[in-house]
Amino acid sequence: MSIILETKSIKKSFVSGQRTITILNGLNIEIRKGEMVAIMGVSGSGKSTLLHILGLLSEPDEGEIYFLDSKITYKNENKLAFIRNRYIGFVFQFYSLIGELNVVQNIMLPSMINNKPDKKKALELLELVGLGTEKKDKYPSTLSGGELQRVAIARALMVSPALVIADEPTANLDKAASIDIVKTMREINHSTNQTFIIATHSEDVANMCDRILFLSGGLLHEKN
Ligand SMILES: Nc1ncnc2c1ncn2[C@@H]1O[C@H](COP(=O)(O)OP(=O)(O)OP(=O)(O)O)[C@@H](O)[C@H]1O
């Protein structure tokens, strides 16, 4: 299987008062095309920091990143934004939907940013994530957490990204809803071959993935 995303010795530190805290300390990761990988680790181990770097939202202090066979450079923000908008979908813990837009408008948003509004695709995605089109005109404040996250997943899939990065997507859901959401992601992963990286504290969620990587001491350790 080909590699879609690779890091070589990435480092990231934050300055806190007088101290410098190293969060990622020469971390290597190889993600194969079409796999679904869980990243686990205790609170503060750096999962979100790592996902931000893997999603090209922030730059490591040192090290290299290769995505879709190209080395990422950080000098040209427009090019970086293009790669992100075109190839990477994001799902966050707090859904990050826009309250003033209805469900279908929220899902369509990435296609509008790319100047190609596509309502038909948004409605297809709504079905794909298991919500059904009867919810299409509803506003986020009227939906449950599980429904909100399904809308957020549909929005992440709007540009048919090669990679979906999900940062604790089930942290606000109960166990049954969490498993349902990740089952849906898994079905999409199997049917579309899109690659998923999911940070999670949940063993149930992690066990539904192809591989589990543990982040500790600034490095990743594979669970066999
Ligand atoms: N912009 C920042 N400036 C300073 N410190 C930061 C910054 N971002 C993260 N940190 C610190 O880096 C460490 C790792 O944070 P991160 O959010 O990546 O961990 P996490 O594993 O995702 O945690 P959680 O499971 O609680 O979400 C924490 O100690 C955090 O306070």
Would you kindly provide a brief summary of this structure?
Keywords: ATP-binding, Hydrolase, Nucleotide-binding, Transport. The protein has 7 helices and 10 strands. The protein starts with a strand and ends with a strand.
Query: How many whole angstroms does the radius of gyration measure?
Result: 17 Å
CATH class label:
Alpha Beta
**What about the largest sheet?**
6 strands, mixed
Please state the oligomeric state of the protein chains shown: single chain
| Helical stretch tally | 7
Shape: globular
Tell me which ligands are bound: adenosine-5'-triphosphate
Strand content: 25-35%
What order do the SSEs take from the amino end to the carboxyl end, as H and E?
EEEHEEHEHHHEHEHEE
CATH topology: Rossmann fold
CATH superfamily: P-loop containing nucleotide triphosphate hydrolases
Count every beta strand, where a strand is a DSSP E run of 2 or more residues. Answer: 10
Helix-strand makeup class:
alpha/beta
Indicate how many domains the architecture comprises: 1
Please give the share of residues in helix. Answer: 25-40%
Q: What value does the average pLDDT take?
A: 93
Query: What's the CATH architecture?
Result: 3-Layer(aba) Sandwich
**Distance linking N and C termini:** 19 Å
